[in-house]
Amino acid sequence: SGRGRSLAWTWRGDSRRAEDMAHLRGKTALLIDPDPKSARVMRWTLARLMCGVISALNGKQGLELARGRAVDFIIVDSLLPDLPAVDFYNAPDRPDVPVVYVGVLRNQWDDVRNLGGNVGLLPKPYDPDEAAAVAGRLLSRGPSQNGKEHNNPPS
Q1: In what order do the strands lie in the sheet with 28-32?
Q2: Could you give the CA distance from residue 45 to residue 51 in angstroms, rounded to a whole number?
Q3: Contact at 8 Å (CB) between 66 and 30?
Q4: pLDDT higher than threshold 50 for residue 65
Q5: How far apart are CA 149 and CA 145, in angstroms?
Q6: What whole-number distance in Å separates Cα of residue 122 and Cα of residue 79?
Q7: What integer is the mean pLDDT of 133-148?
């Protein structure tokens, strides 16, 4: 029987993660990932959270979309084939748009981490639910309170 189960139970008992992910409801994400399979899983994760998704398979297309549409947050693979992923930190017309970098390698960690506020970092392999939770956490803080969200650098 599914009655009485809390939302937190749905996400493996992690109530903070569920609360963070709830901030994505009704928001629009820009997802830039050159790997179609990885992008599909992330799109499913965001759609499950009632979040709209605009997708790009490469950095140039992603930058065009970031500049041409109102997005609430960006999730970008750190290993784009055509552009450095750090270009997305200043890409949107609004500087307060959070950017979550996924698949960050050890040699990229300091460069990405030092970009400033509104940044989340996740090493490879990353959990799509965790990427969504980091985005929700950044959104919930608002631009004036945002700092950096990151796990430990990859080993």
Answers
A1: 52-56, 28-32, 73-77, 99-104, 119-123, 148-150
A2: 9
A3: yes
A4: yes
A5: 12
A6: 12
A7: 74
